[in-house]
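USER: Write out one fold?

ASSISTANT:
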Amino acid sequence: MTLMMVATALGWVGALAGLVAYAMVSRGRWNADSLAFQGTNMLAAVTMLTVAASNGVWPSAAANIAAILIGANAVATVLRAKTKRQAESAPVLTIVEDSEQHEAEPAAQPTVGHRAYAEAA
């Protein structure tokens, strides 16, 4: 098996991956901002870049490099948004202090505060 045959097979895999991603978004099974869609598109662009570069088709190679960069930016944006949502939905601990002095205790003893942590709803 020659290098050109491997590159051609990768090209077909990339073309198929791109079509699958397009079909999944068109049918409403994936969202355009999903990691599945962006990852599949990036896989398609990487494999098709390999074929374009090995054949010296530089306009196609450049277009696939642009698609990879756009996909990487979209993945980073999705992951940042996911991290932000997780941080915003994380439970918050608040300090609840109890420093009341009980009547049975002598006034000369200092009040001892008790701290408890409560999860905010």
Summary: The beta strands are 93-98, 114-119.
